[in-house]
Amino acid sequence: MLKNRSRSKFALFLLTAAVVFGLASCDGDRVYESYTDIPGAAWREDFKPEFEVEIADTARAYNVILNIRNHKDYPYRNLWLLLETGYPDGNTSLDTMDLYFNDELGRELGKCSGGSCENAFLVNRKGPVKFPYSGKYSFRFSQLMRAPEEGLQHISNVGLRVEYTNAGNPVK
Predict the structure, then answer these.
(1) Contact 65/167 with Cβ under 8 angstroms?
(2) DSSP 134
(3) CB 103 within 8 Å of CB 109
(4) For 27, phi and psi rounded to 5 degrees?
(5) Least confident of 4-8, 16-20, 53-57, 98-102
(6) I need a surface site. Which of 32, 58, 112, 158 has the fewest CB within 10 A?
(7) Is the entire prediction scored with pTM above 0.85?
(8) Span 122-145, pLDDT tens digits
(9) Within 13 Å, how many C-alpha atoms sit on residue 11's CB side?
(10) Residue 157 is inside which H or E element, if any?
(11) CB atoms within 10 A of CB 44
(12) Integer Cα distance of 131 and 88 in angstroms
């Protein structure tokens, strides 16, 4: 009787370990993912979301993905951003990004549900990136739209995801 109880406990332990391991490995290619709320869903010029990512493996290739959540009432088809990337050696680079939320017929390009949409954009538009140095990288985003003083309305969150490229390309 005691032997059967031990076997049952061991089987339950193995099942629990398998489930925990399976859930933990579902997103094993993710290196970093974080979101920042836009105060009042109105992105002001002086608000610059920044994400710091620790890169250890310079031999691997990565996708860097910008995620933006907006309300369907966002009044424009696109969003202009300035990306400032800080490198572990102290250098920085600047890049402008023109991101489209809708096609020329006004159809949403992101995943929309109810009144909100989630849009994903590859930051590394030329393909997978290999970071030249190990260490901390920073990614700071500034909106460049001609918005009223109260800010660019209907943008609720900005997020950054860094993943190994064998995760596939989630951005269409």
Answers:
(1) no
(2) S
(3) yes
(4) -125, 45
(5) 16-20
(6) 58
(7) no
(8) 999 888 999 999 999 999 999 999
(9) 6
(10) strand 155-164
(11) 16
(12) 10
Q: Name residue 96's beta-bridge partners.
A: 82
| Domain covering 29-167 in this structure, CATH number | 2.60.120
104 — phi, psi (to 5°)?
Answer: -65, -15
Q: Give me the pLDDT at residue 11, please.
A: 41
Give CA–CA dist 154/73, Å, rounded. Answer: 6
Beta bridge partners of 117: 70, 112
E strands, 14-61, in order: 30-37, 42-43, 50-55
What whole-number distance in Å separates Cα of residue 143 and Cα of residue 41? Answer: 13
**Pairwise CA distance, residues 79 & 97, whole Å:** 8
Q: Are 124 and 63 in contact (CB under 8 A)?
A: yes
The 3-state secondary structure of 70-119 reads EECCCCCCEEEEEEEEECCCCCEEEEEEEEECECCCCCECCEEECCEEEE
Number of Cβ within 10 Å of residue 168's Cβ equals 9
> Letter for the amino acid at 16?
T
**Residue keyed to tokens 């909106």:** 143
- Domain coordinates in residue numbering, the chain: 29-167
